[in-house]
Amino acid sequence: MPKTYDQAYYDKWYRSAGHAVRSPAELTRKVAMVLGQAEFYLGRPVRNVLDVGCGEAPWRAVLRRLRPGIAYQGLEASEYAVARYGRSRNIGYARFGQLAELRFDTRFDLIVCTDVLHYLKPAEIRAGLTGISDMAEGIAFLEVFAREDDPAGDREGFFGRPAKWYRGEFANVGLMPVGSQCYASPRLARSVASLERL
């Protein structure tokens, strides 16, 4: 039976004191770090963000607090999240693999995809990564847990692939690691010094 990302799922993993794995303070630090990375390489403030697999869009409020006026577009495959928050939080329905064909009127200064890829099969990951590489103007923050990690949280449907596998797939689409799970887009390759590359 496939996993259902309904309200009960989000209540358990994002709001329950016994299961929630991130605090609001931790999320704020993470968003600030990722914005800093993107703006360092872009040489200007981040103007727009694509948040893939955004769930209920917790990044949106933090991004808007740190960068008032930032344009946010969320994408999510949970029918519950899109039905409940799609209009108010600008979340559209899409699966990760659909990024191979899905395009917008602009590229994105920052693309975020947290806690998604380690639940997907290789073909869907490869398809979606082509879209991320094509749509990224600046940085892609691809937060993934690998076989070598011991992440807290939802382990149902988790694929424990080696970190080397993910690095290879990201490199295949031109995404360059610059630290803390941030990857420079192919358009930024000339802006990344040799010793900044991991």
TrEMBL record:
Keywords: Methyltransferase, Transferase. The keyword Methyltransferase applies. SUPFAM superfamilies: S-adenosyl-L-methionine-dependent methyltransferases (SSF53335). The keyword Ubl conjugation does not apply. One of its GO terms (biological process) is methylation. GO terms for molecular function: methyltransferase activity. Pfam families: Methyltransf_23 (PF13489). This is Methyltransferase. It comes from Luteibacter yeojuensis.
